[in-house]
Amino acid sequence: MNALATIWTVLCKELRDISRDRRTLALTLLLGPLLFPAIILGMGMLAEKKARTQIEKELEVPTIGAERAPNLVSFLRTQGIRVVDAPEDLEQAIRDQRVEVGLEIGEEFAEAWHAGRPALVEVLVDRSQRNNDIPVGRVRGALEAYSSQVGALRLLARGVDPSVVQAVSPATRDVATDEARRGMLLSMILPYFLLITAFLGGAALVLDATAGERERQSLEPLLATPAGRGAIVSGKIAAACLLGLVSLLLSLLAIKLSAQMATGVARQMDVSALSIAKMLFVLLPMLLIGTSLLTLLAASAKSLKEAQSHMSWLMLLPMIPTLVLMVNPVKIQSWQFAVPFLAQNQMLLRVIRSEPVSASEWGIYLGCSLGLALLLWVGAVLRYRQEKLAIST
Amino acid sequence: MIIAQDLHKQFKTRTGTVKAVSGVGFQAHDGQITGLLGPNGAGKTTTLRMLYTLMQPDSGHIEVDGIDPARDPMAVRRALGVLPDARGVYKRLTARENIAYFARLHGLSAQRTAERIAALSDALDMGEILDRQTEGFSQGQRTKTAIARALVHDPRNVILDEPTNGLDVMTTRAMRQFLFGLRDQGRCVIFSSHIMQEVAALCDRIVIIAKGQVVAAGTADELRAQTGQSSLEEAFVKVIGSEEGLEA
To answer: What predicted TM-score, i.e. pTM, was given to this entire model?
Structure first.
């Protein structure tokens, strides 16, 4: 019997076997497609909602010495900022996050004001809290507006056109910081989840078909048939890859749909059919690497439990380049396309941002990742040829 | 016809080297049931594993229908039907699918597979369980499925490792009839057991193994004559030096 026929037979059997295990199959196939839209849409909605409420809601700002600047207080009022009395220890209250932002109007405010000198108003803020970016921005913006308004009036009173002191007119909207953050998060999280889906998409089947088969004592009779061991293990890997591929395809379609429904940054992702096909192509070697590695590990494990315990560190592996890039953002260089996980990460980012990938980069990427996949596959085949493997007791 | 000559096999474990088999040799002829009898841990399973090519002997020689498994293991596997000690079936597949899977791995055509499954199902009385998923099968039903799976390619030589282990009396009796049937078809049947009564009831020739070596071999009559004992039971006790394996 030739190897291809054996591979096909094993493939069909493994897929039929897992198709009867509805729950495992559903988890394998649907987890990704449900998770991605939740992340993309959910995160977007959350960020937007937060931004909107923080921008539109009336902001209460505890202020020390409010009575020294009644005009400022009433101006702030028109900007949706209500000045309230400061608690006993305002600084501590900010540190405890009971107050997002506070103001302190200097004691010499009135004096400086009347003398036409810059009057001191301090914004009290805890910079280590990211949560208060928007309220702080609002307070600062209002103060600057008040300052330039009054400044302009003073110039007019002296017969000078106020616009001469304003060489440039910068305008920033606070929402921008939030959008950028969301975009960053997406670009970090999306490749990671895609990588995980590809890397461990076939895991349930692999574990069941290797360590599980050994534990249930059906491996010994299987290896006593004239079917080649290389073909048997290849059939199992092929079945797992096929399952992983379907799960990946569903995930990518889910991303496409949710990106089209989403607002903001997610909308800017390139999810055309071509780009989806590219992403799938980028992830294919990862699928092969993941299933082969898992087959190798699971075949070496003494029990299904031991094999499953590998999953915890395997799930962290694809995260490493993401973390490294987060801490130390580097320029994309060609060697990076040779490093597993990092390469996929960079490729995916490029595709998502619809940046071009050069032929040589494709070459390095495919050569290295397929080479690694081949190496792991050979390892799994050799593992299956060992005498010890078949002995389940 | 299966010939084993002076087989040796040792394993390295953490506590040292274990000599599982040290000098097992016998001949199993076509049209006969050859029983390997010995207490647990005597080396029966290891011997059988070497016969069905799962392990390579450290030294010694094996021939299955004149083929050396060291040279052509695939041909030997094709000539053998094996019920190993481990006889797990795929729980989510039906008995028929389990058997058909192995038939396809042996390269049988769909039509031939259907014929063989029908024949084996008749012989093993599997009609009712054939299209049920094997999850929840009794020990006997699982063993039947495993035997049908092992014999689906109609092999001339059959190796069964403790086939009656864990079966009830009725199933054991049916199994015996099935094995007699295989013998009468002219096949070479090797069968291992640690239960003397089982071997006495079934086997044409008995090979007694203890501590990795053959301690006696022959028909029941020859064994009695060799040991000078009137009953097979006494003969067995005498050659292995203990009463292990007398209790079923």
So the answer is: 0.79
